[in-house]
Amino acid sequence: MTDTLEFNEIYQEVKGSMNDGRLRLSRQGVIFKNSKTGKVDNIQASELAEGVWRRVALGHGLKLLTKNGHVYKYDGFRESEFDKLSDFFRAHYRLELVERDLCVKGWNWGTVRFGGQLLSFDIGEQPVFEIPLSNVSQCTTGKNEVTLEFHQNDDAEVSLMEVRFYVPPTQEDGVDPVEAFAQNVLSKADVIQATGDAICIFRELQCLTPRGRYDIRIYPTFLHLHGKTFDYKIPYTTVLRLFLLPHKDQRQMFFVISLDPPIKQGQTRYHFLILLFSKDEDISLTLNMNEEEVEKRFEGRLTKNMSGSLYEMVSRVMKALVNRKITVPGNFQGHSGAQCITCSYKASSGLLYPLERGFIYVHKPPVHIRFDEISFVNFARGTTTTRSFDFEIETKQGTQYTFSSIEREEYGKLFDFVNAKKLNIKNRGLKEGMKQSYDEYADSDEDQHDAYLERMKEEGKIREENANDSSDGSGEETDESFNPGEEDDDVAEEFDSNASASSSSGDGDSDRGEKKPAKKAKLAKDRKPRKKHLESKKGKDPNAPKRPMSAYMLWLNASRERIKSDHPGISITDLSKKAGELWKAMSKEKKEEWDRKAEDARRDYEKAMKEYGVSSKSESSRTERSKKKKKKQEKQVKRKAEKKGATPKSSSATKSSTKNSNEIFKSKEFVSSDDSSSESKKDSEDEGAASLPHSSEDSASGSD
């Protein structure tokens, strides 16, 4: 016989809704964990009084009754699992799992039985239907009639809102059966009745969700939010979790109350109640109870007279009445030392708090994500700028949350936190055989060093740095290479007649298609020196006067050493933060002294700029003229060099053609007599050869 039984996709019936989850039966008891809320119901084996097996709409169901009157119903079992469950109950709980089917006769009269928190309508010995009295929101009576109203179920398309019972009159004197019926219902129903005085009242508290200022009246079983427009009554049984979170400015505190089911305002549902407090606000509180009652009920957690910060008093009272732990941020610290990260979710800016067992985002809209429902997380590059990144979370149900515009400096801290919590990171790749570190029924805080994950993190950082360097370099080259004036000069030099003659002189048989790569290579060669030239042109003139400092910067330079001595070991970031606080707290008279110094520095700067402008203008004009002259000389030298390279072959071709023509028309004596003028003609012949078009060059080479 196994010591545990586990069932997936089991449905627990709570307040008319079927909640999906996992059920585990062990020697110690029964545990059910809700997949949606993460809430765990734990029934000790010693508390079980009865187990009933019956056929229901979703196959077969199990109903468990405890000795204190609570009823738990679980559906979704298969018929073949009855024998296994029956043997387990008999061996470990010493209970017989009873088969009891529902009556399906369709009769509408019978007997009502109240058992614990359950109303059962029976025909004979068989139940027709059962109503958990915690589902009842109101009970009203009439003549021989009782009406039950129910809480609305937001998860169902159609909800049962009302049932009426006809109660026939009896002959017994002094007992009204209608009133007796109603009293039985009200004693167990979830009906909020503000009877008696409140234990304490907190006035004009700032509430972010729902927005407004509310008076909070604390009653023994519920809290009452009273505002100018709306009133809310919240039973303590609907409170799921409590959070106390420090604001990033370290001056305010969030107190978050998670609710299931949520409070309603029209069609809007509020799953979280968020209160904002100032740390400086104090209060003295006196409970509306005598000291004996306070000691008996709260067992030292509260006293009749208390004083302290307002947020501490509210959280302390709520913790004692709700009887749940308050969740605070763990050991996570961001780049600035805060326990949260500034980000955006659904176009609204807020704060993301990494907790020991989940993430919570405040405040619009509030989101709480448990680690055990996370499938994987993803670090993505920001869509608008490389100075930020996005943090994506996808749950096992397929819901995706994207927290964007997170500062790049927070990446390392957040990555280390996710790594330590053993969460799967999508863009890093999953380690083969890596197991989920969270138990299906409870969270785990195991923290083991994983060398593989560390290595992957380092490789990811290196890749990201290389990508940023390459993108910066390419952008710089593109910007600098775009200069319309200089590009035009290059094109003119490259494709003029001289350039074509020099390129064609290397090989007379090469066609134009083979010349193009050479031209491209030349353009690429010329780009490098031009880039350096531009960089030197863009550089700041070292002789130019420096801009004047602001009053704050003058004061900071004078006070930096003093702040360091007052706070040994202070970091640069904290020093700037501290300096800002000191400057803000400085009196107006002291600030005026630094304002005068800044004004004097500004006047000196303007005067120096005027003097610099006159001198720099004359010098720049001289520099410009010398640059133009130098550039013109370089072009002339370049053209002469190209001419010399093209002269031997082309001039010989010209001479041969001239010689042939002279032999036909002139005698040798005529030619020899003109030797004295040959020197003067040589230059003109060279110019004619250098300016030949492509067609004449081809014909000349062909005549050879």
From TrEMBL:
* InterPro entries registered for this protein in UniProt: HMG_box_dom, HMG_box_dom_sf, PH-like_dom_sf, RTT106/SPT16-like_middle_dom, RTT106/SSRP1_HistChap/FACT, SSRP1-like_PH1, SSRP1/POB3, SSRP1/POB3_N
The listed locations are: Nucleus, Nucleolus; Nucleus; Chromosome
Query: Which Pfam families does the record match to this protein?
Result: HMG_box, PH1_SSRP1-like, POB3_N, Rttp106-like_middle, SSrecog, SSRP1_C
The Gene Ontology biological process terms listed for this entry are:
DNA repair; DNA replication; regulation of chromatin organization
Source species, domain of life: Eukaryota
One Gene Ontology cellular component annotation?
A: FACT complex
Skewed-composition ranges (Low complexity): 497-507, 647-662
DNA-binding region residues: the ranges are: 545-613
Check the record and name the Gene3D superfamilies matching this protein: 2.30.29.150, High mobility group box domain, Pleckstrin-homology domain (PH domain)/Phosphotyrosine-binding domain (PTB), Structure-specific recognition protein (SSRP1)
- SMART domains in UniProt: HMG, Rtt106
Region entry Disordered, spans? 458-552, 609-704
- Compositionally biased tracts (Basic residues): 517-535, 625-642
**Which ranges are annotated Acidic residues under compositional bias?**
474-496
Q: Which GO terms describe its molecular function?
A: DNA binding; histone binding; nucleosome binding
HMG box domain residues are: 545-613
Q: Which UniProt keywords apply?
A: Chromosome, DNA damage, DNA repair, DNA replication, DNA-binding, Nucleus, Transcription, Transcription regulation
Describe the function of this protein.
Answer: Component of the FACT complex, a general chromatin factor that acts to reorganize nucleosomes. The FACT complex is involved in multiple processes that require DNA as a template such as mRNA elongation, DNA replication and DNA repair. During transcription elongation the FACT complex acts as a histone chaperone that both destabilizes and restores nucleosomal structure.
User: What family does this belong to?
Assistant: Belongs to the SSRP1 family.
Q: What is this protein called?
A: FACT complex subunit SSRP1
| Organism of derivation | Rhinopomastus cyanomelas (Common scimitarbill)
